[in-house]
Structure formats: C-alpha cells, structure tokens
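HUMAN: Mind sharing a backbone?

ASSISTANT:
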Amino acid sequence: MAFPSDTAFKQLFSFPELARELLRTAVPQRWTARTRPGDFARINASYVSPNGTHRHDDVVWCLHRDRRPCIYMLVEFQSAPDRWMATRMQGYAALLSEDLTKQRRATHGREPLLLPIVVYSGRDAWPYRPCLGALRPLSPPGLEHLQPELNYVLVSRSIGPGVIGALLELNQADDERTDIPALIRKLSAWLKRQNNAVLSRTLTAWLQMRLQDQFPDATLVQELTMEKIAMMFEHDFRNYTEVLEYRTLLRGRREGLEMGRQEGRQEGRQEGRQEGQQEGLREGATKALLAERRNTLALLLKHAGMSLSEAGTRALENATPDQLLDWIHMVIEAGKLPPELSPA
C-alpha cells in the first residue's frame, strides 16, 4: 500500500534541482558536477509495448549536453528489496529505448544512452547485486558473451553525505544514529542556494508530512518553515530514541484528555444535573491540558539542558495553560529559559 508520504517523496524528484543531485550522487564524476538544473528536461514516462502492454515509469529525465548525445535517466523507486529488480529494469530500459527510437530521439541512428537508477528508501540493507548477470547460472563455453546484461545504480541510505542521502535518512529517521537537526539544516542550506520557492514549499511540506506521520497528535509542524522545523528539533529531539519519548508523552496527553472527559461525565451524572456534568468536563479537560503542557515544557527544558530553581519549579506548578503555552513557544523559538522560570 502506498502512503501519501511515499507518493510525495517520489514527487520531489520531479524538480530538476533534485534530478541534478541524484545524477551527481549516482555518478560522482567531474562532468556531472558541471551540470545545471536547466540541462534537465522531464519526458513522458508512459508508453505501450508492441504487445499492447502499458508501462509507466516513475521518473524519466533527459540530460541535454552541448554537442554530445543526451543521457536518459530512468529512475525507479523501491521501498522494499526486490531480488528481480535487474530483470525489471532490463524490461523498462528496453521499452524506453524503443520508445525513444520511435520518437527519433536517438542520436545518429544509435541506441540512446541510458542511466538506470533505483532509489531505495527502505530501512533494511539492499541484499542484491545491481546487475542482471548475478541472477543467472554459469553459462557453458561459447554462451557467455551472448547473454543480455544490465547494470543499475542503487541509491540508498548508505549512499553517504549529500542532499539525496539526507532525504533518504529523513524518510526513515528511525534509529539513534540519525542526527535529525543536522539533516534538516543541510536541506535548508541547500534550498537557499536553489532560489526556487516552489521547490522549497514542496520539500518543506514533505518534511512536515513525515513529521506528522511520526507525531500524529503534534500540531507544532503545521505552519513552520524549514528553519523553524530545524530549530524545533534542535531543542526537542536529536534522534529516534527521543522521538519515542515524545510519542509516549503524546499518548499520555490523549489518555489524560479522555480520563478528564470520563471523570467529568461521572461527576455530572452523580450530581444529576446538566450543570454539574458540564463543569466536570471542563475541570477534567483543564487538568489534562495543564498536565500535558507541563510535561511538554519539562521535556523541552531537559533536552535543551536547562534546569529550574526551586522558585522556577513552583512557578511551573502554578502556571496557567496559557502561560505554559507561551513558555513552550519561547523555548522552541528563542532557545532560552523564560524569565519567570529563571533563577533570581
């Protein structure tokens, strides 16, 4: 089943800026380092085979080169390992080559230059060799050079530093080794250099969607820029262990709110009056909200390395929900201890 965030991840690669980064990651050569976003043109990835079978590739990019043949990047996305990926890519490459030839995109009657890339976003390591020959048994003498061959470039979380590596890490940021703030800062700095507002909005929306997947009850990420998301994580979570701790807190919030509602209904029923029921509901919800915001602020202070004096602890216990919310925003956005909680 494809989740919305999976579809959004593929859509990121509809931007030529990310197509260029993918090329540089897959083929780290001097000539790829000289490419520009304007050299890339996305082409139709839907075509029909001679037997009438429809085929739609994930993404196909054409890299235009001055006075040299174009290169066609055939990009497929995988969230799970596939033993027969090389076989599939061979079929996709053959259909793409045939379609390009029919469209007269081939250069001087020659086969087009193809670059097959598999972008793997799964958690586990990819266990298969990226070549068709690895799937075949040994050939008898005289047949070796007659066997079809295809190699593809595998781009996964282990690809190393860079924009593509950061995207793949954030797409599955589920272990202690993932430095979430550093990855977000890397993407933020890269986005500033691209000067593409649409790309920036799209990438930020994708990141918010990933965070929302991890924090179904969180509302802090709904209207944040990339910089504020990085700031939030810098003062809140550094790795997935702390993510789990926060998710536990959010579950406590839901349970507290539900408990408050139940207590309110019970008190109202015992009083036998509508006024008592409504008052009980309000009181229970207020208690749950106070507990939630106190716990949230305490967790933020802990991860920011801020400690409270006795007076600060008393102020925390006596604060109203609105005061607590103001202090939460101050810690997240300014990274400092609220004056009311600071030592005298």
